[in-house]
Design goal:
By secondary structure, this protein is an alpha/beta fold. It folds into three domains: 95 residues, CofD-like domain (Helicase, Ruva Protein, domain 3, Orthogonal Bundle), CATH 1.10.8.240; 33 residues, no CATH class; 138 residues, 3-Layer(aba) Sandwich (Rossmann fold), CATH 3.40.50. 40% of the residues lie in helices and 19% in strands. It is built from 13 helices and 14 strands. Strands 5-2-1-9-10-13-14 form a seven-stranded parallel sheet, sandwiched between helices. Helix 1 links the parallel strand 1 and strand 2. Helix 1 runs parallel beside helix 2 and helix 4 packs across helix 5. The longest helix is centred in the N-terminal third of the chain and has 15 residues. The relative contact order is 0.15. It binds ligand FO1.
Amino acid sequence: MITILAGGTGSIKLVRGLYKEYKDITVISNVADNFWFYGLYICPDIDTIIYGLGNILDKKKGWGIKGDSFNFLKHIKEIGEESWFGLGDKDLTTHIVRTKMLKEGQKLSEITEYFTKKYNLPVRIIPASNDHYETRIITKSNKELHLQEFWIKYKGSVPISDIIYHNIGKSQITQSINEILHNSKIIIFAPGNPITSIGPIINLASFNKIIKLLKKKVVVISPLISNKAISGPSEIYMKAKNIEPTIKGLIDFYSEFTTNMIFSKKDKKEIQEKICKNYPNINFHFTNILMDTPSKEKRLAKYIISNLLDL
Ligand code: FO1
């Protein structure tokens, strides 16, 4: 089995590539960007994986359902209510059904399995936790904003002083995760935001303990090329956590969790000449990690399967 830690809108590209090349796939999804909106429980990262593998994802936006309409959102705006979060009409179906099932007492992992079956996806998608904890941005004026509010409502324009995972200390990993991690041939950290997509998973106390013991089979794919995020606000969030927003900062951040990291060939010279001597326990691999076409998604998946499956 290959297990992939995923979150954000970039991870699905790798999940999609691997899913085409290898049949026994488990995705552990970030849940710390989940939030309540209009009484509905929204789980963007889980939905991106489901829609992406179900081939209905709006690939241009990277989230939501392709060709969706936004009549609900338009109308709620017309009556003067909050409309900053782009809930599409078809997408609403997922949030309504999920919220109903949650209120009936089902766990998020059970609900996610239900959707996986509805869309006939032969993968396991496991929420990192069935408990609600959330990534919050602490602003310089000392306000706490949910990640979605910061990034979408305020368009990332508010000065940040810190980022926290609110309630993580009281949250448990989903029960099946321990066995899944132990049974995996490799555990891949998708090229997601280290602070808001992968960070919330690996900082769950029991996850953290297990993954450090299994670091020999962890493979991290860099979300940065030439010290720039491939997409999204990785650098902003790394800076807020006092992590140098560079390849070096990224290696430092992940060094306690992994012995294998994949970077773009463009970073080979810098890493080999200046960085790798400080990290003797990490094997650095170089290939083309940009996945802007389906064939590049498959190419990276093939690279991983041929070079890193038997660690
Ligand atoms: N991202 C945006 O930038 N604007 C939106 O209005 C928006 C709506 C949305 C609705 C459903 C969904 O599943 C995802 C949505 N996203 C939107 C993406 C989402 O905020 C991020 O991808 C993740 O939370 C990052 O982990």
